[in-house]
Amino acid sequence: MSECYGHEPVMAVQVADLMVTDREGVYLDATLGMGGHARAVLERLGPKGRLVGLDWDPEMAAHARRNLADFGSRVTVIESNFANLDEALRREGIESVSGALFDLGVSSLHFDKPSRGFSIRHDGPLDMRINPSNPLTAAAIINQWPYEQIEHLIRVVGERWSTRISRAIVQKREKKPIETTGELARIIENAVPVRGLKTHPATRTFLAVRVAVNYEFDNLTRGMQKVSSFIRPGGRMGVITFHSLEDRIVKETFRLKIKLGDWNPVTRKPAVPSDEETAANRRARSAKLRVIEKVEEGK
Ligand SMILES: C[S@@+](CC[C@H](N)C(=O)[O-])C[C@H]1O[C@@H](n2cnc3c(N)ncnc32)[C@H](O)[C@@H]1O
User: Which residue's C-alpha comes closest to atom 5 of ligand 1?
Assistant: First the structure.
C-alpha cells in the first residue's frame, strides 16, 4: 500500500527524468519524506536550480532538513499539509514552480515506530495521524463511529469482509475500548477466514482508517488543484500512487485537465518500477507514476 521504505525512494531515476524540464527552475516536492526524491531532482539541477519541500509530519520535515543539508540554501523545507501548499509557497515568496511531485502515503518510519500507531505488526496506540496535532485519531474512529460508518469506510477500500469486521469491532468495544493496533489486528484476524491470504487480513482495514484519519483523498484533490495554478507553462505535475483508490483520483483529475486543453499527457500509461526495483523492494510493486505537462501558449 502507500509506503516509502528505508532511504530508497520509489522510481527515483524515472522521477528525475520525467520531472526536470528546466535545470535552473524551482521545484516543489509536496511529500518530502526522507528527501530521496528531492535529492534525485536536486542532483539534476544546475547551480541556480532550487527545491521547496513540504511534509505534514514535523518529524519527517526534520529528517528531510537533515538529509538535504548539503544542498544549503538551494533547499527550503516547510512543515505543511500539501492541501495548503498555496499558503506555504506564498509565505516563501514563490509565485510559480517548474514542476511538482506528490509521492503519496506514509513513510517506513511511520510503520517502524509503534508509537505512531500505523503498524499491524508492532503493537502501539491506535493513532495513525501523520500530523500529531490532527484532532481525529484511529481510536476515535474505531471506538466512536457508528457501525454503518465503519462498515462503509472499510467496504470502499475493497474489503470483502467489511460486515464481519465491523460487527466484530462493535461487539468488542461494547465490553471495553479498543486501544492498540495489536488489539485491532487480532479482532480482524479472528473475524475473517485467513487461509490463503497473501497479506495480513487487517491490511485493508488499516489502510481505510489511515486514509480517513488523515483526510488523504480530500488532501490529494485539493493539493493537485492548488498546485495547478503554480506550475509554469511547460512545467510538470507528477503523482506516485500505491493503491487503486488514490490512483483513480489522480487518473480522473489528469484526464479532465487534459480534456480541458490546458495540460498534455507525459505518461500515457502510468510509469511503473522496473523488475529489478520490485525485486529489490517488494513494496514498490504497487507504485504508479503519472505525469502531465502544462501547455505552453502558442504550442
Ligand atoms: C511516501 S513518503 C515520501 C517519500 C519521499 N518521496 C522520499 O523520497 O523519501 C510520503 C510522505 O508524505 C508525507 N505526507 C503525507 N500526507 C501529506 C500531506 N497531506 N501533506 C504533506 N505531506 C504529507 C508523509 O508524512 C510522508 O513523509
Answer: 33
